[in-house]
């Protein structure tokens, strides 16, 4: 029943009535039912109900599973009790590494309540653990620090992180970045929406997009992934032999770097007329 209420986003009072009925009939309310009710409360932004469920579950259960902790972090992050998120994060850490979304809600809570120091501490901890932040988390930083330009270097580091990891911001994040740049005093930034040309030149400022520069280690990793996962794969020997594969590797190794690679099989299948080998033959010249 509660699952149907979740799907229908039912009125919270109806859900309360169901809990009261179950408690009266059975003398208790199960953990699973409380968890579903909590989900309804969090999704509906019912703050006082989230507080009530938290108190109930803390008294009844010695520990909660990570799904419940995650819901409470999201629910508390928007309230004056947002610091409870920090304790909940510590509880998750005893079991697993918190997810980027867990960190993101806690960071949002700190920023909403003007505690940027705690927000940056959580962000740095998340990155140190090798987690990739959600774009909503970056957006929260740019939105909240629009008037506090003492963190300009930190916000610039977020842009550098995206650049170094080839992460392209979505439209909502781009709008926040644009608004932040335009609010920086003294620089007189002016952002405009544009579309780059195929050459990589910006139609607005005429600058060129950076090309992706790989280190030797990154290039070798990419080369191995292409060979093992794309060319060789798991079923390569269904249509070829180990000798043919080694011959191909030797052929590639002896040739200079290729600028263009044409898939002969795809070319052969571009037309239904004539023999496939005849279609591919001109490629050999």
Q: Helical amount among residues, as a percent range?
A: 55-70%
- Rounded mean pLDDT is 86
The share of residues in extended strands comes to: under 5%
**Overall SS class:** mainly alpha
Query: Are there runs of 5+ residues with pLDDT below 50, and where?
Result: none
**Straight-line distance between termini:** 70 Å
Radius of gyration (CA) equals 28 Å
Shape: extended
Q: Tell me how many strands there are.
A: 0
The profile of the biggest β sheet is: none
**Continuous helix count:** 15
- Give the H and E element order: HHHHHHHHHHHHHHH
Description:
The protein starts with a helix and ends in a 5-residue tail after the last helix. It has 15 helices and no strands. It is extended, with a radius of gyration of 28 Å. By secondary structure, the protein is mostly helical. The mean pLDDT is 86. The protein has helices at residues 2-8, 12-26, 31-43, 47-60, 66-77, 84-93, 100-112, 116-128, 135-144, 152-164, 171-183, 216-232, 242-254, 264-268, 276-280. Helix 2 (12-26) runs antiparallel to helix 3, helix 5 (66-77) packs antiparallel against helix 6 and helix 5 (66-77) runs parallel beside helix 7 (100-112).
């Amino acid at each position: 029943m509660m699952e149907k209420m979740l799907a229908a986003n039912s009125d919270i009072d109806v859900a309360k009535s169901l809990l009261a009925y179950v408690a009266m009939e059975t003398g208790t309310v199960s953990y699973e039912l409380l968890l579903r009710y909590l989900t309804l409360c969090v999704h509906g932004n019912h703050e006082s109900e989230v507080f009530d469920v938290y108190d109930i579950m803390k008294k009844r259960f010695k520990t909660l599973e990570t799904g419940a902790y995650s819901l409470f972090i999201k629910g508390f992050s928007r309230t004056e009790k947002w610091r409870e998120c920090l304790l909940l994060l510590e509880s998750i850490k005893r079991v697993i590494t918190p997810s980027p979304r867990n960190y993101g809600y806690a960071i949002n809570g700190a920023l909403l309540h003007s505690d940027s120091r705690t927000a940056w501490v959580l962000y740095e901890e998340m990155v140190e653990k090798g987690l990739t932040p959600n774009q909503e988390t970056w957006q929260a930083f740019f939105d909240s620090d629009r008037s506090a330009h003492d963190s300009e270097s930190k916000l610039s580091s977020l842009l550098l992180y995206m650049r170094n990891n080839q992460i392209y911001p979505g439209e909502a994040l781009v709008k926040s970045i644009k608004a932040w740049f335009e609010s920086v005093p003294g620089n007189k930034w002016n952002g405009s929406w544009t579309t780059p040309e195929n050459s990589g030149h910006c139609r607005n400022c005429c600058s060129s997009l950076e090309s992706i520069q790989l280190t030797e280690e990154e290039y070798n990793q990419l080369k191995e992934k292409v060979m093992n996962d794309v060319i060789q794969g798991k079923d390569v020997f269904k249509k070829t032999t180990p000798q043919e594969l080694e011959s191909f590797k030797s052929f590639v190794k002896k040739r200079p770097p290729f600028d263009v690679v044409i898939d002969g099989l795809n070319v052969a299948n571009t037309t239904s007329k004539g023999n496939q080998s005849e279609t591919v033959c001109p490629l050999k010249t």
